[in-house]
Amino acid sequence: MRRVFLKSVPALQYRCFHTRFVQKQQSTNMKYPLDKPDEEWRKELDPEQYRVIRKKGTELPGAGKFTNAFPEKGVFVCAACKELLYKADTKFESHCGWPAFYENLPGKVNRIEDDSFGMQRTEVVCSNCGGHLGHIFKGEGYPVPTNERHCINSVSLDFHKEETNNK
């Protein structure tokens, strides 16, 4: 009976597991150009954005608005600070449940080694505000030029149809 109950609430299981252990992740002491107090971020971001971007959470697989969106032109930006991050033509189908990109715009993300959950990964954060975007995985065999998959939370992104040159 218990097994049936647990299978009926996978989203709750995932959210509880992830939230419980995410607080154990090492925080970095890096400074970013856009530095705001936590209270200000709470006011500007909706609760899910705040949980993912500021508290290093993860949205549920397949739940994001950009998971199955493949625009030909434009740019994905940080949902928190609007920093340009990824060109639309670097997004590819990975079937992983989150938007996947094979490369970021130069200098727009920082890579941080992350050994949480007993695995070696590379966290990717916005270089302007330090917001958590997702993780980078290498050597998975996707037919992309960099042999990398930037697995990014949709809630960490916004999309602009036209690239802008203001950043």
TrEMBL record:
InterPro entries: Met_Sox_Rdtase_MsrB, Met_Sox_Rdtase_MsrB_dom, Mss4-like_sf. It catalyses: L-methionyl-[protein] + [thioredoxin]-disulfide + H2O = L-methionyl-(R)-S-oxide-[protein] + [thioredoxin]-dithiol. GO terms for biological process: protein repair; response to oxidative stress. It holds the Pfam family SelR. Its cofactor is Zn(2+). This is Peptide-methionine (R)-S-oxide reductase. It comes from Schizosaccharomyces osmophilus. Residues 38-162 form the MsrB domain. GO terms for molecular function: metal ion binding; peptide-methionine (R)-S-oxide reductase activity. Binds 1 zinc ion per subunit. It comes from the Eukaryota. Its EC number is 1.8.4.12. Belongs to the MsrB Met sulfoxide reductase family. Keywords: Metal-binding, Oxidoreductase, Zinc. PROSITE patterns: MSRB.
